[in-house]
Design a protein that fits this description.
2 copies of one chain form a homodimer. Chain A has helices at residues 31-43, 57-62, 76-80, 100-110, 124-135, 151-161, 179-182, 193-196, 201-216, 309-323, 331-350, and strands at residues 22-27, 47-54, 72-75, 90-93, 113-116, 141-143, 168-178, 222-228, 241-247, 253-259, 261-272, 275-279, 291-295, 298-302, 354-355. Chain A has 359 residues and is α/β, with parallel strands linked by helices. The first copy, chain A, folds into 2 domains: 22-145, Rossmann fold (3-Layer(aba) Sandwich); 151-306 and 329-355, 2-Layer Sandwich (Dihydrodipicolinate Reductase, domain 2), CATH 3.30.360.10. A 9-stranded mixed sheet of chain A has the order 14-13-12-11-7-10-9-8-15. In chain A, strands 3-2-1-4-5-6 form a 6-stranded parallel sheet, sandwiched between helices. The A-B interface holds A 165-167, 169-170, 172, 174, 176, 178, 224-226, 228-230, 241, 243-245, 247, 250-251, 253, 255-257, 259, 261-265, 267, 271-276, 294-295, 297, 351-353 and B 165-167, 169-170, 172, 174, 176, 178, 224-226, 228-230, 241, 243-245, 247, 250-251, 253, 255-257, 259, 261-265, 267, 271-276, 294-295, 297, 351-353.
């Protein structure tokens, strides 16, 4: 059996060869922005980093050497006052979750498009405000689910949509990492429930959730869940480890785990009536993704060139803006994850199966 | 890093080189007995099949050619009357689940040891009777969890016990197969709730359950679950597909799936604080098992000689009897699975987290 994967990493979304350049202001200059986003944009065909926006002027100034295109380093306050707004077309929001909303508000006011990190915000209410803001505005807001432009995930979605593994029946997915070894700071914002809304479900659990939604092309209707913690640093936020089941229409289920206190690992698997597709490793930009399909008793391992997930995401976002295409996932899509994660925490508290609210 | 796996398939339980031979009566001559058990015993060092016991004399007689050691073919009724009892030392019970109890009763009465297929029985009450019978008797009853003598599973247990992957945090496990393609009979006993007690949790789901218990060396305390069915053949029994979460003490969890209506697949994974051990394929005798460990960012794939799981199990059982060692897993151990599966069905019905009763 042949799978049509000669062009595994082809950007199936790309219609224009040279659509131009989008100038981006990076909001929040933490390690992800410095070590992942800015380097990815340097490799990007359609994006330049031109402005850095930080709560600390020192942090912003220090980072200006990370790309030759950077023209301005300003504070959050200066950003909200519209400073340097002539120097960027769009913003990338990578602050703690609970600070996303005001930056989206200012961007909408200034007429700047938005690539907003996931989760959209720290609470459903604040995320809902982002959805309302976008609905009433001409700016484009994309939620930064880099899995949706990851070639392995897009090919898995095609495999499922084409019926190559029959009807999907069950999903397994995990994303885990040792957070306190990576960032040995007990005061980091992910451990502050007011800033993050949750440590593990919100930061890692949404990869299984959103990837399952994207690959199955279905939204879950109910969840079962349990969160726990071992380390004292997770006492305020509660969820160091999370195990949850997503229940989709038609009896499809996803058995998911996430942990900020375990070995770095990730996988995503869909078992169907006629076969199986597995991505492993799945979710980390820093680990080469693996892809395999099993059908008819045979297993096919697909070797493919790895891409930088952040470059793919920025290029996709910019390509949409430059070609007048609505970028996806939009705020409405991201909001379903917020509702799902709220249901996960609720199911955990109540020890019950909880239905996911619709908007 | 070196793993001490030169003797991966070494029978770490074997103390005697040539302990003798146990003569076994096979009870229930369905496809598993004919195609798996009897051939496995032919390869076994310490077991001979000497008697076949079937509900149908024709079925028993037809199978006598499967091994040269077979001396008698008798009916269930004849067995209960003690016929041919001088020709066997122990019985292997491989009938529909709801028929296990009377054979164990007769074996106890006749002073014959028992290897009883899992699940022990179709209901907790009947399984409880088996536990009571064994407690009051000198015969040994072992529940036939072939995973506990599968070398890959035993090595995984050692890896966990030695702390090589740190503290276990999360387990993923699945076992699925297309039952109606394998046995295209809508009247088969697995689909009759009175005979099976359940189609998928009872027949396949107990592999994830029991293997998690064995490898973690812990018993679950609560479960969350959902079962569903697509095909009309599963309407009476209910569970064509099952997804369930086992909650262990200390916050360890196992995200499990099982399906009688999906692609044949199985895996078992433990993610710990310092690493991960994965068995894939895991549970089918007919598929070569795979074994790998990841620690310190490195992945080690262990290639090892495959064994016949049924031969291992029969030899282990016989070796215990011949050396005066109590075989394990015993009825008490198997009963915890019965309680766990009852809790799974209960959690499904009630849409709640359900605590597992203790005896």
């Amino acid at each position: 059996m042949e799978f049509p994967f000669e062009d595994f990493t082809l950007r199936d979304w790309q219609t224009a060869e040279d659509p131009g350049t989008v100038r981006v202001a990076m909001i929040g200059i933490g390690w992800w922005t410095r070590e992942q986003a800015i380097p990815a944009v340097r490799e990007s065909a359609f994006v330049d980093t031109t402005v850095l926006v930080s709560g600390s002027m020192g942090k912003a100034r220090e980072a200006t050497g990370l790309a030759p295109t950077i023209e301005h380093a300003i504070t959050y306050e200066e950003f909200h006052n519209g400073e340097a707004s002539e120097a960027y077309d769009a913003i990338y929001v990578c602050t703690p979750n609970a600070l996303h909303l005001p930056f989206v508000e200012t961007a909408v006011r200034l007429g700047k498009d938005v690539l907003c990190e996931k989760p959209m915000e720290a609470t459903v209410d604040r995320a809902s405000e982002i959805v309302d803001l976008t609905a009433d505005s001409d700016v484009d807001v994309m939620i930064a689910y880099r899995m949706q432009t990851e070639p392995a995930v897009r090919r898995a979605r095609e495999v499922v949509a084409a019926g190559l593994i029959g009807d999907p029946v069950q999903v397994h997915a995990n994303m885990s990492q040792p957070l306190l070894e990576m960032i040995p700071d007990p005061d980091q914002w992910r451990l502050d429930p007011d800033l993050s809304g949750g440590a593990t479900v919100m930061d890692l659990g949404l990869y299984p959730i959103n990837t399952a939604r994207f690959v199955l092309d279905k939204d879950p209707v109910a969840v079962q869940a349990r969160t726990t913690h071992d380390r004292a640093e997770f006492e305020d936020v509660g969820d160091e480890h999370a195990v949850f089941t997503l229940l989709f229409p038609d009896g499809v289920s996803a058995a998911c785990t996430a942990s900020q206190g375990a070995y770095k690992s990730s996988h995503f698997r869909v078992t169907g009536t006629e076969g199986e597709v597995v991505i492993e490793p799945a979710f980390y930009n820093s680990q080469d993704r693996g892809f395999r399909i099993s059908v008819g008793g045979e297993r096919y391992d697909v070797d493919f060139p790895q891409v930088d997930q952040m470059t793919e995401e920025f290029d996709y976002f910019a390509h949409c803006l430059l070609t007048g295409t609505e970028p996806y996932p939009d705020a409405e899509h991201g909001f379903v994850d917020m509702l799902t994660m709220e249901a996960v925490y609720d199911a955990d508290r109540r020890d019950q199966t909880v239905e996911i609210q619709s908007r």
